[in-house]
Recover the amino acids of this structure.
């Protein structure tokens, strides 16, 4: 299975979580020339596990099982890197985001440090197969969870769950060396949810003692863009957690802060489920 839904199959409150970047199941056809450790570059390590206890509150959590470097579900399926493609021509829908320049379009071409992931180009058939096996089921599942909750409650709040490096690297928009806040909330400059949703998340986190920034440097990408329509009661918010709160980035292992953060995220989701059902 390339995706997994933790918790209830349908939301018991108008709240849905998804974690697109925490998968660690390496598909046998990856054919990368760098190590599995290196291929976990850009992974939002343990983010699904951080939110797992919150699913017991009746809130479903969709989690990608495949690695982000294999295919990034937080991209449009037409965001194809032509430089990685055998023949350089993509016959299906083409919707470039500009991330191909960094080697980080739908299918990553390079690691964060610029090293190539493959010793060859990928065929059109290989790229289509990854879209059909990973991107399509992920997006079908997130749409279905949101649609069902919206049909039942007349509105739905979607939290798109991520984590970020403690300090920006050379490819980051905020400039190498920038030290990040504990949380960054992204509503694409107020376009993907009502302002009250961003505010309640910010206030709950601030009360817990966290430093929170909004849309700086992360505004939210494809998953909050594609499924939000605030005027129709469809609200999406990207939540980036600073990795220093729960893990050692160099070894990619959890540290002692993991449990406290997990407890606080469970409280956050509990409060939000109550708030969303108000
Ligand atoms: Zn992410």
């Amino acid at each position: 299975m390339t995706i997994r839904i933790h918790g209830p199959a349908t939301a018991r409150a108008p709240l849905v979580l998804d974690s697109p970047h925490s998968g660690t199941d390496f598909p046998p056809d990856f054919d990368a020339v760098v190590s599995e450790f290196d291929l976990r570059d850009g992974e939002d390590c343990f983010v699904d596990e951080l939110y797992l206890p919150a699913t017991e509150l009746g809130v479903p959590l969709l989690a990608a099982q495949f690695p982000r470097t294999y295919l990034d579900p937080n991209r449009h399926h037409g965001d194809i890197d032509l430089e990685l493609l055998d023949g350089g021509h993509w016959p299906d829908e083409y919707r470039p985001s500009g991330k191909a320049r960094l080697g980080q379009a739908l299918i990553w071409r390079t690691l964060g440090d610029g090293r190539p992931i493959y010793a060859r180009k990928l065929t059109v058939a290989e790229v289509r197969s990854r879209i059909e096996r990973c991107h399509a089921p992920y997006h079908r599942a997130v749409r279905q969870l949101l649609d069902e909750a919206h049909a039942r409650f007349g509105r739905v709040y979607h939290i798109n769950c991520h984590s970020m490096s403690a300090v920006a690297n050379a490819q980051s928009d905020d400039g190498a060396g920038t030290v990040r806040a504990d949380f960054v909330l992204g509503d694409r400059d107020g376009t993907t949810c009502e302002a009250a949703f961003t505010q309640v998340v910010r206030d709950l986190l601030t009360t817990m003692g966290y430093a929170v920034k909004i849309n700086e440097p992360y505004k939210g990408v494809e998953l909050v863009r594609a499924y939000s329509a605030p005027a129709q009661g469809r609200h999406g918010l990207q939540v980036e957690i600073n990795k220093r709160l729960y893990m050692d980035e160099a070894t990619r292992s959890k540290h002692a802060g993991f449990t406290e953060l997990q407890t606080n995220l469970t409280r956050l989701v509990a409060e939000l489920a109550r708030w969303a059902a108000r």
In short: Residues 3-76+121-276 form a domain with the Aminopeptidase fold (CATH 3.40.630.40).
